[in-house]
Write a structure and sequence with these properties.
The chain is mostly helical. The chain contains 10 helices and 3 strands. The chain is globular and about 55 Å long. GO terms for molecular function: DNA binding; DNA-binding transcription factor activity. It comes from Xanthobacter flavus.
């Protein structure tokens, strides 16, 4: 039996869990706000209104405050005393450093996926890539970004390393709003498709070194990608 055929890792949701048993009100609010921050619906610098959120979720202010604390622990928001909670803003230099680390983590996910992915996991990665190709033709950049997140999530799952997937996801969520801005640059979508194709080819061939290199280069901000990022950031 090959390593790919013997892979038995469990599917995870986008928060690294197979479900949410025993989830508290604060956890539910945190997850909803995390999704809004990751998607860009809540942009960096946005103020989070405690009373409005309590009314929106039909709860008291206590679980909202706890959700803010959890988000602050994940470096997604800043707690500013009387000013309340604000979606974290990150400097360009810090973001470049975070992308460098992100590239290494995602590269390792791809490396392990090349060694461990079973046929079903590889098929899911390829199917999501096909959807990305279809979406790219529609010109819907925001939908492309969302499906692109699914592609990377599928690679995390195929790594069969839950801890690595969770750490990669946490960092991705911190830079997600800025990563979305890069997607809107004119050259980014065709480059993404080409680079994803290289990652898939390496995973399909079980070439772990090539998969790691392709994913690392895809995520890292180098050359023109760095210039595009700085333009989008500005």
């Amino acid at each position: 039996m090959s390593a790919q055929e013997g892979s038995t890792c469990l599917p995870l949701d986008q928060n690294g869990r197979s479900g949410a048993p025993g989830e508290t009100l604060a956890d539910r609010i945190r997850r909803a706000l995390e999704a809004d921050i990751s998607s860009g619906r809540l942009e960096p610098g946005s103020k989070l209104d405690e009373q409005e959120l309590a009314e929106q979720f039909g709860v008291s202010r206590t679980p909202v405050r706890e959700a803010f604390r959890l988000l602050a622990a994940s470096h997604l928001v800043e707690l500013r005393g009387r000013q309340g909670a604000v979606v974290r803003t990150i400097s360009a230099q810090s973001l470049i450093e975070m992308f460098q680390v992100m590239a290494e983590l995602e590269g390792l996910c791809a490396r392990l996926a090349a060694r461990r992915a079973n046929p079903a996991q590889l098929g899911r990665i390829e199917a999501i890539h096909k959807r990305l190709e279809d979406v790219s033709a529609s010109g819907d950049v925001d939908l492309f970004y969302d499906v692109n997140q699914e592609f990377h999530e599928a690679v995390y799952e195929a790594s069969c390393n839950g801890f690595l997937a969770d750490q990669t996801r946490r960092l991705r969520n911190q830079v997600a709003a800025y990563r979305r801005r890069v997607t809107h640059r004119p050259s980014r979508i065709p480059k993404t498709l080409k680079e994803h194709g290289e990652v898939i080819a390496a995973i399909r061939a079980h070439d772990d070194e090539a998969a790691q290199r392709a994913m690392r280069d895809h995520v890292n901000l180098l050359g023109d990608d760095l210039l595009d990022f700085l333009a989008a950031y500005g």
